[in-house]
Every structure is written in structure tokens, then in C-alpha cells.
Amino acid sequence: MKNFIIVLVTISFISIQSVSYATSWAYQFVVWEENIYVVSEGEYVTEVEQEIGEVTNYSDMEQFGGNFSNAYPKGTKYYSIKGIKPEDSIAIEVKDGNFIKATREGPYTYRTPPRKSGVICLGIMFIR
User: Fold this and answer.
1) Is residue 80 within 8 Å of residue 50, measured between CB atoms?
2) Count of helix runs (H) and strand runs (E) in the chain
3) Which of 60, 49, 51, 52 is nearest to 25 (CA)?
4) What is the pLDDT of residues 11-70, one digit of tens each?
5) Of 1, 43, 44, 94, which is the most exposed, with the fewest CB atoms less than 10 Å away?
6) What pLDDT, on the 0 to 100 scale, is given for residue 107?
7) CA–CA separation, 64 vs 73, rounded Å?
8) How many C-beta atoms lie closer than 10 Å to residue 59's C-beta?
């Protein structure tokens, strides 16, 4: 009987892990200078001083770094409030000339999520 060599090369699988992040928020907030500011419910500000920043990332489903918000779109402006240190509270422009107060809760501790990884398995079998 002849020897048969069967070479079987199989790519068993290619799997790219997909990580899905969904977040439910306890309150509306903005992030400025690596601190999270909780948006008040109806406490409007009438005297603002200068623009100090703006929302750079928005999502109501996942977290981001930078001046992130779960409530306001990218480009929403932040202002200092007359007589209040920005380290305590800031004003968020909600409409032209209307500002709502946001009070500092503490540091924003967001970290970049782990990278997606891929797995490739290659099986080689020699049979005689």
C-alpha cells in the first residue's frame, strides 16, 4: 500500500473580539479640566465671565476622554461664572445667551478601554 501524505492546512478561525460598552448615567454631566461637573436641574446662571472650554466628545452610550458630555453635543461652550471659582462650578451654554450651572463633583477617572485583539489559529496536520 502506498503511503499517502495528506497535508491539511486549516485556518480554524479568525476571531476579532468585539467589546461593546453601554452605559446608563445617573445624571447629566460635562467634563472640564479632567473633572466631572454635574449639571443642575434648572439652576440657570445670568452672569457669566469668559469662555473656558467646550464639549469635545459627546455620547449617551459610552465614555470618552477630553471634555466629554453625556448630555450636550460637541461644541457646547463652557463659561466661568461671575463670583464663583471654575474649580467649584461652571456655566454651560444651553441656548444662545442661556446658561445652566454645573457643579464639580470630583476627578473624571475615565481610562482608555483595552484594545480589541484578534486571534488567528492555523492548524497543520500530517497524516501517513
Assistant:
1) yes
2) 0, 10
3) 60
4) 333 333 334 455 667 899 999 999 999 999 999 999 999 999 999 999 999 999 999 999
5) 1
6) 96
7) 13
8) 13
C-alpha cell at position 110: 475615565
Grid coordinates given for 92: 454651560
Helix (H, G, I), strand (E, B) or coil at 23: coil
Per the confidence metrics, is the pTM higher than 0.90? Answer: no
Query: In the β-sheet with 89-95, what is the strand arrangement from edge to edge?
Result: 48-54, 77-81, 89-95, 98-107, 35-45, 29-32, 68-69, 57-58
Q: Please state, in angstroms and rounded to a whole number, the distance separating the CA atoms of residues 123 and 7.
A: 10
At 20, list the grid cell.
Answer: 461593546
